[in-house]
Batch of 4 targets.
Target 1
Amino acid sequence: MKRRTTHKKKSHPKIKLRLHPQNKHRERYDFKQLTDTCPELAQFVKLNMYNDESIDFSNPEAVKILNKALLKHYYDVEHWNIPQGYLCPPIPGRADYIHHIADLLRNYNYGKTPTGNKIKCLDIGVGANCVYPIIGNKEYDWSFIGSDIDPVSIENGNKIIELNSFLKGKIELRLQNNPKDFFYGIIQKDELIDFTICNPPFHASLAEAQSGTLRKLSNLNHEKITKPILNFGGQNNELWCEGGEERFIREMIRESKKFATSCFWFSTLVSKQSNLKSAYKALEKAEAVEVKTIPMGQGNKTSRIVAWTFLTKEQQNKWRNTRWTETL
């Protein structure tokens, strides 16, 4: 007779201490609240093996509707959708990046976070989901430029902006016609950007991306999975590029030097610790004036933001006094 496996009730910390203190997602998901806000989530909420309410995080549709509920409940986004197969990012991690950038600006602005739509951010690779601009605008009233090499992403992002009136005039999406460029063709002549953010493609090839997905799904399901289903979705250009994250970041740093006085802080996520050495080397070669590494953590995953500026102290003071102090 086969014995039934039972799992002891898992105890969870009430607060996810590794998330930023300002992050609205530090507590465990309240599925009652979320299903009240977004009733279509209810069909995906089940008791997991530990007898906790949850969703099947290996189901792409469930993950997408959870995101829809989170964006509606916490950020007042009434209408949000992405085309099938496009990246559906984890909201808590995206919010963390935004709050850490706010800290960085505050530390360079007499201890006050610059807010308001005069503060302009460039999101490189905004994707079809438009999540970074949504969170940044809702939390700090910043205005955003979102760039992407994929016309479908731009089209879908514009649809999200159009359907949520509070985003109109706050987020502008621009198509990057040259996949090898980051800032050329996007930052216009005499345009000033207060900071850039970026979530680079993680992998160096499709095979590597699929292998990573299988590993993640096997961990989620507690069994070996052999067929890759992208639970968070993602097109090729969102998940991998030639040379992977390391080369992508190196090239971005190299090109950023050409826009040294157009932007105060450039920044990017660096998912792999092993890629930091290459990034630091590229920053040294580009003669960045200051470099900051900001650790981030979510669950068992550790990541970091690397930010750099080419502005001298005098230039920083001028920027701060002409653009930021007016917003205080």
Target 2
Amino acid sequence: MASCAQEKFLRLRVLLIAFCVGALLLNASTWAAKPDPDIEWKPPKLPEAVTIKPEGVALNVVPIDRGTRSEIAQAAAQIDSILKAYWNENSTKAGDRTSDHEFVRRAYLELAGRIPTIDEANTFCNSNDRKKRGELIDNLLESPGYVSHFYNYWADILRLKERHDKNVFFEPYMAWVKESIADNVPYDKWVYSLLTANGRVVENPATGFQLRDAGMPLAYVDNTVRVFLGTQIGCAQCHDHPFDRWTQQEFYKLAALTNGSRFSAKQVFFGGMGEASFGPDNPTADVKNASSSSSPFKNEDDLIPNLVRLRYGINEAIDMKKVGGGIRNFFDSSTMMLSSMDDEFRLPHDYQYDDGEPLDVVEPAVLWGKIPDYAEDEDNRSRFAAWLTSHDNRQFARNIANRMWKKVMGVGLVEPIDDFQEGNIPAIPELLEHLTDEMLRLNFDLREFVRLLVSTETYQKVAVIYDPTAAEPHRYAGPALKRMTAEQLWDSLLTLIATNEWAYQRPTAQEMQTVYGIDVSTVDYEEFEQSFKDYNDYRRDLSRTRNKNCGLNGLTLVRASELPQPSGSSHLLRQFGQGDREAIETARQSATVPQILTLFNGWMTHAMLSKGSVIYDSVSQQKTLQSAVDTIFLAILTHEPDADMRRAAEAEIKQSPNPAVGCGNLIWALLNTREFLFID
């Protein structure tokens, strides 16, 4: 990252001084700030589970087809050829090829979400195999780290959070998203499932996508089109789009096509197992008048009817001291269902254009093209999903190709990535169409598409600094220099601490079904109450197990994907920009003062200097000062120091009260360099 050895030397010295000042200001009881070398400071004890080598596979991931490597190489060469022609036309000089140390660090961060360990880096860099880069790519793409990293990516897009609504438990949906990545489900089939799923979230977790916008049909269509078609039509909810071609009439026609979702609670105490739908037009279903002569319950004061009264706020015959809000929420989550029910959709009451009257019924229609013939007789949601995910709908393929290009290269060919419109011309139109063709050729295999992109010579160039506010467009002479995401930073710090980064994993969707999947139609109130108790015990046990096995001073030392979603506002993940998941892609990359203080003196930094941590044990095993310095640099920056950096590092260690203090200072200093925080 640094332009010269002198800059590196000066930066290290400044950071060492800054750390000591910062630590003193915080009144920190750390090695670096300790005034008396005779006072022993005991670092926290790491939980045993994270210090033990794991047994077996952490997560089952569908393997890569190694037999397609030659095809990938040929396809990657085509992308490089298009870019070379573009560089020649624009007098752009391609960047230098990354060194092995630079490439292995980038590959681990981009494909596994963390920096490599010393052993992983040395194994790669010491190999003489000419095909080792391709082999590394394939190994990482079928690793648990790939699943975790890309789960974090989609969690920010899909707004995954455990409790966006107190009446919906989202954990099965979140687990299903991760499992779909591990199973490498084709993207078009995955999206089709999200758009057409029916049932309860515990039985069919894909319903979570639509439950995220339950009761908000206009917001749902806006969010869906933004995510999967890269088009912003939200302005057309209220009026014709001022900057694009979409009209309010077109928006409502598309909304009419997606309006077939009904969110309801099972009326389980009626013999017919009917449903009382609720939404904008029916917020309180009349459950008292919905009874059936075939009801298995003879007494209206039976306890199952009481549950339904709870659902709709009918309070008679309920002992509120016995039944609290938690069990009401559990009932809501246990009975919330998604189903298809086509219904008419009307223009708003204040519609002002000549092509319709207020409250006119809207005929469902797509924005462009046509609904595939095979789906014409399906319900509206299925027709919409078939159109959106069709191979004939190039914008669906074009959008995800652009998203993956930005994920890998740092800058989309269309920016912003969710603003495809006539006036927003792609940076390299020919390349974007070629990538769209490749996405279709690969049948929406996203992992294979990423494999293709990272196999290009362009991706393997040294990173290029790109200012998005500059008048000059990005020329893609190499990937754009970018800072680690909050999740990449957390998982990289964890790599320096934990031998077992998978000491805890969130339960699978199938595991949760045994707890969330109670069939309310077959139980009486006592059984339901017991299920609620079992559910609370299960959650409590999970939390205790996670904290007992992996907890350290309020932190849980596991992968970011396995932590609560999203983390609390004071957590390192949130401090470094993890999104709040309230809107699409709310993660931030801006620098703040709390970030500096967290890396200087946060508990993750303290954990690194604890006996049993990866970096502590690696450094303590070294016999010489030189090898200790080399180990620290390799662990944190994935390369050995140059002469000036080595001289500065060794001088700092020698002038410290003892070697441990000096090594601690060096570790802290390197963690706070741009070279560590950025993906070069």
Target 3
Amino acid sequence: MRHLITFQYIEAIARAGSIRKAAEDMNITASALNRRIQRFEEEFGSEIFERLPRGVRLNPAGELLIRHIRSQESDLRRVQSQVADLSGIRRGHVSIACSQALVPYFLPAQISIYRREHPGVTFSVNVRDREAAETDLSNFKSDIALVLEPNFMVDFQVQSVVPQIISVIMREDHPLCDSKEVRLRDCLDYSCVLPTAQYGVRHLLERAAEENSRTLSPVIESDSFDFMRHYALHEDALAFQIPIGLEPKSGLTYRPLSVKDVPPGNLLLGQMRGRALPVASAKFLQQLEIALQVYN
């Protein structure tokens, strides 16, 4: 426990990239912070920061140490939440990395359900693309990830898989709204508003277009699905989203893309492989598993 404050200093320096900036954030002098780190490095037996002309960064030893620190912090939070549960009062904090589609409807509903029973639990919800969500898990920045088509899966322990057929968003007077499902080739004859390359929806559309010897040529690219959905109200343009992120909106309608052209994407719920989650996070993960069953 005696190293906890030093660990906080190390994390602050790693975030800031500078001892001076970290000292300002921690409200101590830069010289005192530098001495503290030097004493720790002497005791640790290795330097953990690479000194640069305009700051510092973790060296390989520091990267290993910071991962250990985050693991220890996670274990401490887990024990604290278990102790709180002994008294019958659940406390703790749940951090979630998620695709944008989960933000408007699904997660607000699930978090409010959980907090009605456990008002002492707080949450952070961080919108992440499919690569950044996995990074958050491995760096202990998030306890749970709920993301479409994650990239690597090395540290991702999957709890639930929910297939999601991509929906085409269009105005209610769009010519394609007369179809029960829409073919990709028909979509590409109209202006399309697409997510940027790091998102799972774009990845699925790109792959399908290549297989059909077509090229995606969006009139607009955006990292905001909310923007893309609203833009479809103003032009005969098509936007794309997964069903869990859609609810009826005046002036818009949705049609599924044919799975003959674009296979469903997989929405994955999971955590870092091998990590024992704090009680609050573990219980919320179980709640999400049950709630997602209706989308299968």
Target 4
Amino acid sequence: MTTRKILVTSALPYANGSIHLGHLVEYIQTDIWVRFQKMQGNEAHYVCADDTHGTPIMLRAEKEGITPEQLIARVWQEHYDDFSEFHVEFDHYGSTNSNETRESAEAIYRTLRDKNLIEVRSIEQYYDPVKNMFLPDRFIKGECPKCGAKDQYGDNCEACGAAYAPTELIAPYSAVSGAKPELRNSDHYFFKLSADSCQQFLRNWTRSGALQTEAANKMQEWLGIEGENKLSDWDISRDAPYFGFEIPDAPGKYFYVWLDAPVGYMGSFKQLCNKLTHPNPPNPPIPPLSGGSQSGRETDTPPLARGGWEGLFDEFWKAGSKTELYHFIGKDILYFHALFWPAMLEHAGFRTPTKLFAHGFLTVNGEKMSKSRGTFITARSYVDHIKNTEYLRYYYAAKLNGSMEDHDHNLDDFVTKVNSDLIGKYINIASRCAGFIAKRFDGKLGNTDTAASAEFQTAFTGGEIARCYENRDFSRALREIMRLADVANQYIAEKKPWELAKQEGKDAELLEVCSTALTLFRDLTRYLKPVLPKLAAQVEAFLNIPPMVWNDKWAALSSGHVINTYQHLATRLDPKLVEAMVAANQESLQPQPQSEQRHAAHQQHTASIEVAQAEKDFEPFISIEDFAKVDLRVAKIVNAEQVEGAAKLLKLTLDIGEGNLRTVFAGIKSAYDPENLKGRLTVMVANLAPRKMKFGLSEGMVLAASGEASGLFILSPDDGAQPGMRIK
């Protein structure tokens, strides 16, 4: 088997706030995937870093009376500790405020400049007359010029997704002082994203398979049709005072944080390369505290001495690299990662990402995370109250399917899922059988019932669970694993070892049953190890076996193998712990100062995003007779496919229980990958008059929800509904 060489990153958390449950969706998802790759024997490196530059950092440090370097060092340690609690195992976790990131950012900038892709021009920019500073886009607010939503940031609208210049905002105001900003002229540096070479490259790259289908569709909307130039040049500079890297040969001008933030992937990997080629690296990897400034001064530490790490870095980052590069991100930062970032890399002589893996937002109990309801929960608060962080890893994995769909963390379902799956099905296998081995057979296993383990052998050799992990369809992988757990529990229930233990002459059968059960428990643990690494290590110690990898040939635990005394591996999740966590978050509400608000859309990976909702009147009332005229039916999506030549449509083949399948053309292409729709249940208007369209006859309509916030969501009935059921 050929060993793959893989570099993996997650989006960089901003060094101006705590890690919360919404952030953890991404880092847990990435960690599971990387652990699986390593279990496969692949060379996989997982790097990340704190995103440390920008005006919010500068203003918060100023308010606290400390330097920005002191602030980001403190937050870095908090982030590192939180990730460690949730077993997110980075090969290196660094900081964008490093010499390595500065070096890479400057090199990219100089190459783009030499290729005439950097342009300097004077622009009118908003200036805060109270704070005496030019205002970054994210510190100007006003009404969106496209949809009219209020309190939108100066670079893009979170209600409709439009991008624009801050000068286009209606009724702008400074988010720093509240003052009405003044327009003043300043020279700014632009990356010429509108250049023909960038436009053509992006058209090709976004269709190359590097993006999920729904993400690629969204990119085509932003790029426009062939020959249409919809991308604007990208402003990559900011004026002093600013905490960041000064642009070479441009005193008083600094790289915009969104230029050096993704370059932080490269900087963090450089630090890893240096660590791998030098003995005795520090643990944990404390980031440098220098590197960014408001004054343009030199860093306090000398530049990294170049050494043997260069070859390893080039192997993963230079153009033409045969290695694999994957970015796990939230869908809200697709614009930056699928347009700006690959265009920068391509034209600076570096490789582009193999794939971007975008995920959706997190809601809690079906709603945005809320401080008033106590559902805006930090990583630290979870640890303090529930403690076992692998419960959350398991629950998130059970929700993730590799798509950009949003995910809901229902707190009641969380408790039920953990207790029914992990405790009731999985842990139950060992707890029911291990004691007999210790008490009756001196901890030594016997023969295994090969017929009982047949399904487990098939699952291992068939590779379905491995394929699900590879495709990030963790929810399907866990469903299959829990199906096997049911098989194991059924075997135990049929054999009744507790009754065999009471019968004379049944010791041999009792030993075989318990030995078989523990072999099956070993197999389940192997499959769960990417999700539950700490628990897997405990099981390996209990079973007295070496760390399990994926490519082991299947074999039963051998007869005579000695296991250790069983100790409880996990306990049921008490709902009162969850209730206490929610209550504690409600009790500790404190107003958040403006400087602590998240400054970049790419850090708002959860439903905590502030979306300005326009006030709307309800539609006029209708009678029950009017409603009864609409025949709403549960429909099963038998097939979903692209429609050639259609920008927004998917062709759905639906079963509504009438014997014949129906065809519906639905405008949901930008939101859903057809493959992820197959087999789902949805709601259909069954008595809508058929409509003849360019692409064929549409025989009804599926229902979907949308609003001022971005996103389109088809409706789904609860479990147990059947095709053809009428909704009333």
